[in-house]
Specification:
alpha+beta; 2 domains; nine-stranded antiparallel β-sheet
Length: about 350
């Protein structure tokens, strides 16, 4: 077969493939239209005032959130205050959900697995108000036609709009309230740091000028910017993780390696954090006064609780390390020393021996 014949055969094959794709797309479009028109799309209505949400997310297990008073709480797998902002974002997204079309009217088990409605992949969400279900939906695969979902026990697979997967796929840590401290750093009147090395005390005086002592003695060359760094770090302190169930000998919180106590003026508040052993990396276990929750807090934050006085001092000589100057030539600017191998004045230089002696 010559070259031109091969070329024409290739063109015919490509044309045939293009035609097949086109007619298949037309058939798919007709099927989709027929299915959508032959089945009622479910109306998704999630009210603002739901009071319970369950989320089963594949191998992440079940998360149960319940409204108690003004706050959302985690009730499974642990009991703890929930992250209020994350729960609100979830509810807002539920209100945006809308069924757009029927993708498959009567899926069999194989199709359900293909569309990731099996236990290993599906995200199952149920929302309640006063014991009544307001939403019961499973979310599977996402593709060009949108997010696949089964809604309120219906067998059809629907395409759903408005779904933001990351809001439903959070792990347990992300559903918990990570706040440790929150206060106005400008309202701090004094704070102390106690650890095995020293006891540091910091007091704000007139004109917001700080004074500090270490073991009762004034700290020389006090760097007030370091004090401000401490307060900026602690004023909105959040945990990286939690140490639920960890024994005291593991966390070290029975014998803290450092404790920081922050007092606000006019007795407006007191914040105490005990810092224990290292958790992972440079992060440490920590616990605030009045709470049983064991937090894991970043190393930059916890390092202040085990600091010595030197961490709050300016360097001597304004922080400039002075190095000895090399020997210089008479009359030369500072820093300009003799080149290597030149131990004396060149002949003819003023002040030199004219005979070179």
């Amino acid at each position: 077969m010559d070259r031109s014949t091969k070329l024409w055969v290739g063109v015919i094959v490509l044309a045939g493939l293009a035609g097949a794709v086109y007619f298949q797309a037309k058939r798919d479009a007709k099927v989709g239209t027929a299915q959508t028109s032959s089945a009622d799309l479910p109306e998704i209505k999630v009210p603002e005032d739901i009071d319970k949400i369950t989320i089963t997310n594949a191998d992440k297990g079940e998360i149960v959130l319940e409204k108690k008073g003004d706050n959302w709480m985690l009730s499974k797998p642990i009991e703890a205050l929930a992250n209020q902002a994350n729960v609100k974002s979830l509810i807002d997204n539920m209100k945006d959900l809308k069924a757009k079309e029927v993708i498959i009217a009567a899926p069999n088990d194989e199709l359900l697995k293909d569309y990731q409605f099996d236990a290993a992949h599906a995200v199952h969400v149920v929302a309640f108000k006063g014991g009544d279900k307001k939403l019961d939906a499973s979310f599977g695969k996402s593709g060009a036609r949108g997010q696949m979902a089964q809604i309120d026990g219906k067998k059809e697979i629907f395409s759903v709009g408005g779904y933001s997967s990351y809001l439903y796929a959070r792990d347990l840590k992300a559903w918990r309230n990570t706040e440790v401290f929150k206060f106005d750093d400008s309202a701090v009147s004094n704070f102390t740091i106690e650890n095995a090395k020293t006891t540091l005390s910091f007091t704000k005086g007139e004109g917001d000028k700080w004074a500090a002592t270490s073991k009762g003695q004034p700290i020389a060359r006090l760097d007030e910017e370091k004090i401000k760094d401490v307060l900026r770090t602690y004023k909105m302190l959040n945990a990286e993780d939690f140490g639920d169930g960890k024994a005291a000998d593991v966390t070290g919180l029975d014998k803290p390696e450092g404790t920081i106590t922050i007092n606000l003026k006019d007795n407006a508040g007191k914040y105490v954090l005990k810092v224990g052993k290292t958790s992972t990396g440079t992060s440490r276990y920590a616990q605030k006064e009045g709470s049983d929750t064991i937090f894991v807090v970043g190393g930059y934050t916890t390092d202040w609780a085990v600091a010595e006085a030197t961490k709050f001092q300016k360097l001597a000589d304004g922080g400039v390390d002075k190095k000895p100057e090399p020997p210089g030539m008479p009359g030369m600017p500072p820093g300009m020393g003799m080149p290597p191998g030149m131990g004396g004045m060149p002949p003819g230089h003023p002040g030199a021996d004219p005979h070179g002696h």
